[in-house]
Amino acid sequence: MTVFVTIVAGLIILIMSLHFSFPYLMHDLQYIFTILKIRSKRLKYKENHYTVLGCFLDRVKTEPEKTFIVFEGKKYSYLDADKQSNKAARALEMHARLKGGDTAALLLGNEPHFVWIWLGLAKLGCVSAMLNYNIRSKSLLHCLLCCEVKVLIAAAELKDAVEEILPTLKEQNIAVFILGAECDTVGVETLSDKIDQASEEPLSPDLWSNVTMGSPAIYIFTSGTTGLPKAALVSQYKLWAATFFPAVSGVNCRDVIYVTLPLYHSSGLIIGLSGAIERGTTIVLKRKFSASQFWEDCRKYNVTVMLYIGEIMRYICNTPKTENDRDHKLRLAIGNGIRPDVWREFVNRFGCIAIKEFYAATDGNMSFVNYVGKIGAVGRVNFYHRKVFPYALIKYDIARDEPVRDSNGLCIEVPKGETGLFVSKITNLAPFDGYANNPHQTEKKRLWNVFQKDDQYLNSGDLLRIDQDNFIYFQDRVGDTFRWKGENVATNEVSDILTMIDLIKEANVYGVQVPGHEGRIGMAAVILKEGKQFDCSKMFSHVATYLPAYARPCFVRIQNSLELTGTFKQIKVKLAQEGFNPTLIQDPLYFLDQRQMAYIMMTQELYDSIVSGNMRL
Ligand SMILES: *[C@@H]1O[C@H](CO)[C@@H](O)[C@H](O)[C@H]1NC(C)=O
Ligand SMILES: *[C@@H]1O[C@H](CO)[C@@H](O)[C@H](O)[C@H]1NC(C)=O
Ligand SMILES: CC(=O)N[C@H]1CO[C@H](CO)[C@@H](O)[C@@H]1O
């Protein structure tokens, strides 16, 4: 008896002391257990070449009547989706003559047809290139050409964007379809009528029998650190890896997932749509995010899980307080980029909602998730991860825009608590698929000789910090990309567009911080051409024509010369630190005024109202 009591008491003391010295031990073990479970599933899928399409077809078999998508009040079951995608596949097979291995590009907003066409293409053994529907002209063309697209399928309302590049598309033999029933443009075919007429009978599995885990599944475009968007290749294997994210985060088949993020992004497409298929859940699909409709929708559709990017959570917190703020079933929010203050406010106001903040990149090979719910962190170091997927934070020289190297030419790991560049080892388990037709950019992402001669790491371009308790925090993006409103803005791409206008000789684009705002907003330092004046309305209409709203420089600073580094890189850090305060900057400064549809002269009054948050950006 006494022996028993002693053992029990000893065990209790052991557990208590473990709990105090390792307060997150249970969380860590639970997480590792989930990961191991999923890993064995993934390996089984890998061996059998079981793709996300295969998983979808199994859902159709086991729960045909289950609601898959709710869109604008209409419900579509898994069986409906199957039939609709059969029709889309048949129409594309017959009229676009697509066959296994071909790539088709989707230039579509969030709507059920996006899903039917994506699944339909998979049923033909084809690859989908997911275009950002905000991009135009040169960038759009570049995206289509770099992944050797055979067919472009565009929404009817994007016809103008397509017509602008039509001559080149024809030269390149790219067939163009508009998702509408009528179109009088020569060289553009309609698709909706053809889908309507096609049979809904299942297609032969032979059509996708060549697809293996190594086959490309989709292309997702990322704004690179230089120049035009890059097509990140997502293989079937990698698609699975990210598709398990909702499973890791605790989503189950009874959940209803609210998806407002664009389906051309990995979050909306892979974590939302593909993740829903893996879990067998229902998704409520929205064309766009609307803060005012958010809770109403959540109540109407019994939403239990939402996907977010940082700004979305802030917009929800900015809605007026109501008495029924806690009247909803939302229990889980999965996303990326929520600020600590917004996080606190969100849970204080709307109740106990678990927030699973994660860190991942479409073109990366490593991801973290903050499974403990520690406010502000993007993830947590644990021994399993470190062992299987080696990574490190290394010293980085921001001004020179390169890692610091020691006398042997190797990189230096930063101590805990310090910010460093996140690099992850490229291995068979964590491969780097690279970018389509872009060996130069693919090579640029690789970092050699990091800790040993000839080793190979992936340069994330992100600065992270790990604290004493092993939580990982996102700090910033290095180099030439900044984030605004949840979108990456490639500064060189914006510069290219700015210098297309006849009054600008050179442009240096960078992001500046504005108090109370997540990320950085675009600013450009420009040199005017000899004898040219800054034309406020012409400049406005130029950027409004060629750039999506989030990428338009909000501030323009006119300089006489642009400072360069020794390696002829533009100096951005200093300019970004100088910001847009007219009392500190002697150069002429302009502000992009949406209401006046022009750039206007920056004044102290304007500056004050922007900084105080009275002027909305
Ligand atoms: C599968 O690959 C073989 C060999 O490359 C090819 O002959 C065949 O046409 C492909 N089948 C499909 C459906 O793409
Ligand atoms: C939401 O849940 C309630 C109560 O469980 C149920 O009565 C209602 O039908 C559900 N609504 C939808 C759209 O599923
Ligand atoms: C972000 C991402 O895709 N990370 C993946 C890197 O590769 C490993 C192994 O394939 C995956 O487990 C990660 O999810």
UniProtKB/TrEMBL annotation:
List the Pfam families hit by this protein, alphabetically.
AMP-binding, AMP-binding_C
- What is the recorded membrane topology of this protein? Multi-pass membrane protein
GO molecular function annotations of the record: long-chain fatty acid transmembrane transporter activity; long-chain fatty acid-CoA ligase activity; nucleotide binding
Keyword Glycoprotein in the entry? The reply is no
Q: Which residues form the AMP-binding enzyme C-terminal domain?
A: 494-569
The record, for InterPro entries, names: AMP-bd_C, AMP-bd_C_sf, AMP-binding_CS, AMP-dep_synth/lig_dom, ANL_N_sf
Compartments reported by the entry:
Cell membrane
Q: Which domain of life is it from?
A: Eukaryota
Catalytic reaction list: a long-chain fatty acid + ATP + CoA = a long-chain fatty acyl-CoA + AMP + diphosphate; a very long-chain fatty acid + ATP + CoA = a very long-chain fatty acyl-CoA + AMP + diphosphate; tetracosanoate + ATP + CoA = tetracosanoyl-CoA + AMP + diphosphate
Q: What class of enzyme is it?
A: ligase
E.C. number(s) listed in UniProt: 6.2.1.3
The residues covered by the AMP-dependent synthetase/ligase domain are: 58-369
Gene3D superfamilies noted in UniProt: 3.30.300.30, N-terminal domain of ligase-like
Enumerate the UniProt keywords alphabetically.
Answer: Cell membrane, Fatty acid metabolism, Ligase, Lipid metabolism, Lipid transport, Membrane, Nucleotide-binding, Transmembrane, Transmembrane helix, Transport
Q: Name one GO cellular component term.
A: plasma membrane
What are the recorded Gene Ontology BP terms? long-chain fatty acid import into cell
Q: Please give the chief subcellular localization of this protein.
A: membrane
Instruction: Family membership, please give it.
Output: Belongs to the ATP-dependent AMP-binding enzyme family.
The record's annotation in NCBIfam families points to:
PRK08279.1 (NF006134)
Q: What is this protein called?
A: long-chain-fatty-acid--CoA ligase
